[in-house]
Design a protein that fits this description.
Residues 214-315 form the Fe2OG dioxygenase domain. This is Fe2OG dioxygenase domain-containing protein. The protein has 8 helices and 19 strands. The protein has helices at 4-11, 47-54, 60-76, 89-103, 107-110, 174-199, 281-286, 341-351; strands at residues 35-36, 43-45, 79-83, 122-124, 128-129, 132-133, 137-142, 147-150, 160-163, 217-223, 235-238, 244-249, 255-258, 265-267, 275-279, 296-298, 306-313, 320-321, 339-340. By secondary structure, it is α+β, with helices and mostly antiparallel strands. The strands form 5 sheets. It has an 8-stranded mixed β-sheet. Strands 1-14-13-16-11 form a 5-stranded mixed β-sheet, with no helix packed on it. The chain has one domain (34-365): B-lactam Antibiotic, Isopenicillin N Synthase, Chain (Jelly Rolls).
Length: 369
């Protein structure tokens, strides 16, 4: 059996004796020892809603209590970990193995499926966070392949085009595994979306229709060992453009969350067979800031590589992002103007691959009080 980890170390463009200056963070962004070992993000058991799917009846009270836990986690952290989520462990194992195989390919092979300027799926190793290059390699694929998206982020450009995933040709069952994993996580996402809706006092399927032609995408992340991990970040501090993000990670630590209560970085402890869930920009707008998209980052290690797989669940491109009518009144007026969801996603993706001298946040677009 081949050692995919060894092959990846040999082939990766990131393992170098001297670090390219484009990766080196300015002093203010370097991962200093500020991570606390105290309270961690909530751990939530989804059994009440996954059991409901397997039986004819349902315990409405248990689901309501579960929704309340989800709501509290979204308010206080913007992050939580779920167990007993219904996604088969076998497909999790196979998607992680597929990820290792892909990143073990020679760099020239990976570049055959490189992302394009306005079609963000495929391989890339040039993502920036806060204008510094991330120490990672990435392969993105669309959950709804061939999804329609704006041709550009420019507000006055009406052109709509399909986005397709460039799939590697010589990896057996790679595409099939990725697509199966996306479908399995989609079921989890809609269960979570129901719980989020209930937690906001809305009907359980209030938000489902926004995802009929979803612009969701999954990401295979590879964080190679780094000779100077104190000078770089795998992914710099950022907030997600999604409604919700569903993240699978293995037992190698590396995800940090900025705790809302005191601004301290908290390391997310990996829990076997779990997913880490976080609130994204779209849900922040829909909830009118009841739930917030929270900053997080990925660390790297000197000798140990790390793999993770987030899926960013994003609504259809033509959906209007604005605070939900039910959550707006005289005491809580709308805090955001209207945006087309596809334009926002396109703008965020454009911003991630070039230096702009600024870091995009949804709060920068709030209506002045």
């Amino acid at each position: 059996m081949q050692c995919y980890q060894c092959l990846a170390r040999i082939s990766s463009s990131l393992t170098m004796e001297e670090i390219n200056p484009s990766y080196i963070l300015s002093e203010e962004y370097r991962p200093k020892h500020v991570i606390t070992e105290g309270e961690g993000i909530p751990l939530i058991d989804l059994t009440p809603i996954t059991n409901r799917e397997m039986s004819a009846g349902s315990d409405n009270k248990a689901v309501e209590e579960l929704a309340a836990k989800i709501g509290e986690a979204c308010r206080t952290w913007g992050f939580f970990t779920v167990i007993n989520h219904g996604v088969p462990s076998d497909i999790r194992r196979r998607i992680m193995e597929a990820s290792r195989k892909f990143f073990a390919l020679p760099l020239e092979e990976k570049k055959k499926v490189s992302r394009e300027a306005h079609n963000t799926a495929g391989f890339h190793n040039d993502e920036h966070s806060k204008d510094f290059k991330d120490w990672k390699e990435v392969y993105d694929f669309y959950v709804n392949d061939g999804m329609l998206m704006p041709a550009s982020h420019e507000p006055d450009d009406p052109e709509i085009v399909p986005w397709y995933t460039p799939w590697p040709e010589n990896l057996s069952k790679f595409r099939e595994t990725c697509e199966e994993y996306g479908r399995a996580c989609e079921k989890l996402f809609f269960n979570l979306l129901e719980l989020v809706s209930l937690s906001l006092g809305l009907p359980p399927k209030r938000l489902h229709g926004y995802f009929e032609n979803q612009a969701s995408f999954a990401r295979l992340n590879y964080y190679a060992p780094c000779p100077k991990p104190d000078l770089v970040l795998g992914t710099g501090g950022h907030r997600d453009p999604s409604a919700l993000t569903v993240l699978a990670q293995e037992d190698v630590e590396g995800l940090d969350v900025l705790r809302k209560s005191d601004g301290a970085w908290v390391r997310v402890k990996p829990v076997p067979d779990s997913f880490v869930i976080n609130v994204g920009d779209v849900l922040q707008v829909w909830s009118n800031d009841i739930y917030e998209s929270v900053e997080h980052r990925a660390m790297v290690h000197a000798e140990t590589e790390r793999y993770s797989i987030p899926i960013f669940f994003h609504p259809s491109h033509d959906i209007t992002m604005k605070p939900l009518d039910e959550l707006v009144d005289e005491r809580s007026p709308a805090k955001y103007p209207e945006y087309k969801a596809g334009k926002w996603l396109n703008l965020r993706m454009f911003n991630n691959y070039k230096k702009h001298g600024f870091y995009m946040r949804m709060t920068d677009y709030k209506i002045a009080a």
